[in-house]
Amino acid sequence: MAELAHKDVQSDLIGFQAERSASHRLRHIRVLFVHRDAQVVESCLQELQKARFIVSADVVSTLAQGREQLHDHSYDVVLAEYPIPAFNTFETPRFLDQTVQHVPVLFVTELGAEPLTQLTTEGPFDYIEREHLGQLPMAVKRALNESTLRAELAEAGKALRHSRSLYRALVENPAYGIFRCDAEGNFLDANQALLDMLGYACKEDLLAANRASEFIFDLGPATPLTGLLPEAVQIQPLEITWPRKNGTLLKARLSGRGIFDEYAAFIGYEIIVVDITDQRALEENLRRQASTDSLTGLANHRKLFEVLHAEIARSKRTGREFSVLLLDLDGLKKINDHFGHLVGNRALARLAQILVDCGRSSDTAARQGGDEFAVVLPETGGDAATLVASRICDLLAEDMEEPALSVSIGVSSFPQDGDAIGTLLSAADRALYAAKENQLVAKLK
User: Fold this and answer.
1) What are the domain boundaries of the chain?
2) For residue 74, which of 100, 96, 95, 48 has the smallest C-alpha distance?
3) Percent of the chain at pLDDT exceeding 70
4) DSSP secondary structure, 218-246, as one string
5) Which superfamily is assigned to 173-220+232-280 in CATH?
6) Helix (H, G, I), strand (E, B) or coil at 420
7) First and final CA of the chain: distance in angstroms?
8) Which fold has domain 292-444?
9) pLDDT for 312-327, tens place per residue?
């Protein structure tokens, strides 16, 4: 019984392997028949099916109909009657080139090979005699393989032409610097665009300066990955600051590839350099505008909240407190009404300058809008923050420019007065209005 079961398993395994091998040989093809004889078409299909082709076929009787089919559908091969009715031997190649383009054509003919010699040497054409249709599957396989090779060759040629034209364009383009250096970072060659970027009069001066070694090793490992040709290994883009000959700085983005010899040994780099100095300056200016109050030059409301968020996170990490001052410029409406808005704007700028003068480099002074200001004091407790507030008031009192200015200030500290941005600012706001009420009471007395 066990032996019988073992034989059954072997039989199933052999059957599975045979089925798998057979399915591996199956090949789906789409064939267009341009032929008037249905019996020939049927014989061709039988031969292809014997060779384990799975055929999807369309049949037309004239080349004009075949042209329409080829326009609307995609085919792997065309099997056509020869000679083609209404076309002589000399007209046929030109018409077929216009009709089938890159689809391989196999002619089924009762003639010998000699009349087709010119035809089969002028394009993707071949022939098979009706008496030898058993050779059709092999001819189809050969035609399909040749078609694949032609397509691959065309793509390779296209890629090579594109690569050459791109390299020429890069070398000649004044926006792209290009240089080559050896494995130690010594310059070997450079184009004129790179000379202009770095301010060198000639290539020899740049090569002698040998500045590539200062950053070239930051480009990362230059080892080809398994399965890739060495010349296909790309370098990850890198941004650097590169001193020009006159001492100014060039901000540049580098990209390129490693260079390897025929033994896959690394021998250097080929690098493309893009000048991004103006781009980075513009980006920095835009970032500064997005976070700066245009009138006073202080941080704006958005930047204030970013700083508060960062300070809360840092205080939670370090356990050190920080404080916030909220300020109102007293009587701004009266100043605007009496002196005009230009003087009112000048008053806001005067207060902003005093906030900057009183602060450390780590402090952040901000204008929230209108006559409202804030100052974030890192690692500062409530008592020290109160002293800063007094110093601001004193400097305003000492300012001799007219009109005289004064402020109301509220102080809050994290985490004693609030453990989030909202509660912290609310506590400072309450202290601010308490200070205003005290000032009002003092005036009434």
Assistant:
1) 22-148, 173-220+232-280, 292-444
2) 100
3) 76
4) GG----PPTTS-GGGPEEEEEEEEEE-TT
5) PAS domain (3.30.450.20)
6) coil
7) 118
8) Alpha-Beta Plaits (3.30.70)
9) 999 999 999 999 999 9
